[in-house]
């Protein structure tokens, strides 16, 4: 067997071995979160705890700012117990126009959300060893870095690289590993992933 034949056979065996090893790798239990685009509706949905400013054109006596109650409804002098949560500001404005049409001819209503909390499924919640664990209103294109800035980073007892995002996708719960320490301490932008509405970021405590 000459040198060229031996070299060719060695390369073939090496390639086959590499393919076998790659094919046999097990899928990790908690796959890393991918930096992917959010498919959620970009329009903000009003939630309990929000404040809305209702402006009725040429009718200042029924124009006012009102809070959205915990049951998701609002009340104004001429409109009682109107569902607001889960609607966009435009949808709520049309509903108010319909309700006011009993008293005002062709009312024109504008609704502006002035304080944002959002529905639970439109929030991003942070629990565990964050400096300020809290629920945040989701914002379009929100990233892991945005969330960490909002909660003041992590505590000295946090195991940031063991953090995970709990996410519901098509009714199924997923656990996605994230590397908070690498992002915050090393500036590794590859660890900065896209958040989705309803995500829960869990930052565990270090063993030591």
Please characterize this protein's 3D structure.
With 208 residues, the protein is α+β, with helices and mostly antiparallel strands. Helices cover 22% and strands 23% of the residues. It folds into two domains: 51-115, wza like domain (wza like fold), CATH 3.30.1950; 120-203, Outer membrane lipoprotein wza fold like (Roll), CATH 3.10.560.10. It contains four helices and ten strands; from the N terminus they run αββββαβββαββαβ. It is elongated and about 65 Å long. The protein starts with a helix and ends in a 5-residue tail after the last strand. The model is unreliable at 2-8, 10-29 and 36-40 (pLDDT under 50). Residues 123-202 form the SLBB domain. This is Polysaccharide export protein.
List its traits.
wza like fold, disordered N terminus, 10 strands, five-stranded mixed beta sheet, three-stranded antiparallel beta sheet, transmembrane, membrane, elongated, 2 domains, 208 residues, alpha+beta, Outer membrane lipoprotein wza fold like
């Amino acid at each position: 067997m000459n040198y060229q034949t031996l070299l060719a056979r060695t390369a073939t065996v090496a390639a086959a071995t590499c393919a076998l090893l790659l094919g046999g790798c097990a899928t990790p239990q908690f796959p890393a979160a991918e930096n992917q685009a959010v498919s959620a509706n970009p329009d903000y949905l009003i939630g309990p705890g929000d404040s809305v400013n209702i402006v009725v054109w040429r009718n200042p006596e029924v124009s006012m700012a009102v809070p959205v109650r915990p049951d998701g409804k609002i009340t104004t002098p001429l409109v009682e117990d109107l569902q607001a949560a889960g609607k966009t500001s435009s949808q709520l404005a049309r509903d108010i126009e319909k309700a006011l049409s009993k008293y005002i001819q062709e009312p024109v209503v504008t609704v502006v959300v002035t304080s944002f909390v959002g529905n639970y499924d439109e929030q991003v919640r942070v629990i565990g060893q964050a400096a300020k664990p809290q629920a945040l209103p989701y914002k379009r294109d929100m990233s892991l870095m945005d969330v960490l800035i909002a909660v003041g980073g992590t505590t000295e007892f946090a195991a940031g690289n063991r953090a995970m995002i709990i996410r519901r996708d098509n009714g199924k719960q997923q656990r996605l590993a994230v590397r908070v320490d690498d992002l915050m301490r090393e500036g590794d932008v590859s660890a900065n992933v896209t958040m989705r509405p309803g995500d829960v970021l869990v930052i565990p405590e270090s063993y030591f």
